[in-house]
Write a structure and sequence with these properties.
The structure holds two protein chains of two kinds. Chain A is mainly beta. Helix content of chain A is about 0%, strand content about 50%. In chain A, β4 and β5 form a beta hairpin. Chain B is mainly beta. Chain B contains no helices and eleven strands. Classes of the chains: A mainly beta, B mainly beta. Chains A and B meet through β5, β9 and β10 of A and β4, β5, β9 and β10 of B.
Amino acid sequence: EAGVTQSPTHLIKTRGQQATLRCSPISGHTSVYWYQQALGLGLQFLLWYDEGEERNRGNFPPRFSGRQFPNYSSELNVNALELEDSALYLCASSLRAASTSTDTQYFGPGTRLTVL
Amino acid sequence: DQQVKQNSPSLSVQEGRISILNCDYTNSMFDYFLWYKKYPAEGPTFLISISSIKDKNEDGRFTVFLNKSAKHLSLHIVPSQPGDSAVYFCAASALGDKIIFGKGTRLHILP
């Protein structure tokens, strides 16, 4: 069974540009989560999508946005890139929205975004 | 405001001994706690979890202890093996809401 996949592996952009990161969940999973792992800050929750709807959002500015497609894959868009957006962006998927907190999230390998 | 705290950035343990990773939390609404393990260049992988109705959960060499009154949980690895060298993230969630992660503790298993 294929795990969560993310593309690209690495992405280099300059300040002010836009970045698009992609995630394909495990087959059968309907929930997709995005996290940012910046240096020294651990994993910061960004966004949570389930069945095409945004379910929750972390404390990030509106220039961080995303969407979930009918096939449950997801895209994270970061507009007007700033230097501090440089981080590892991790996507995770779970079988369904973790309403009972028992659905394990499975993580992809991440996309390393570098903003110059 | 950090709701899940892992105060030790790194920990070194001799192979074969017990590794104890600690985690503190501030939100009394948290009802589910998880530990994830992360190798370099890979995403975190789920290790073990515990519900707030329990105070201990064991899975092979891994045991998680929860002390609700102290808002503290710990992960015990016995015996520690070289493959256990990784970054360990403590995480918590409340009533099915988003999962909050700690900053992680890097565990080094020494030969």
